[in-house]
Amino acid sequence: MSEAQSKENTSRIIPFTPEEHIYLQQKDLREEVRDSRKELNSRMDRIEVRQDRLETKIDALDKKFDAKIDKLDAKIDALDKKFDAKIDALDKKFEAKFDKLDAKIDKLDKKFDAKFDKFDAKFDKLADRMDKFSDKIDSMNKHGNIMTASVIGVALGVLYVIFFK
Asked: Domain boundaries in the chain?
């Protein structure tokens, strides 16, 4: 094309009518909406794939967790049984020792009772002897008082004779 023709073509641009202009804008908007939907659908697909992977991983972790919990429960049950067995064994052992101690205490109690009975008998004999001794002392005091009074009477009589006769 020559320069004159190109000037002619540019000057010959026919403007769109308002209806055509609106139509073209709607067409552009529809294409943009279509493209946006495609992009959103593509993103949603990728998100769903990621979500499926995460759900698979979560399920696997959940199964592992459940398996570990089951193992721990089994270990705890085993330890509980061992602990109960040890407690029962210790209980029997201490019960046997307590029975032996009770038997020893009973023997010692019987020995102490026998010794206390002997001591009670000895104390009773000693108390009887002390009572007899006390009676003897009382009788000696009575006799001594009588003797003292008679000696004093004789001494006074002798003094009376010496001084007054």
From this structure: 14-136
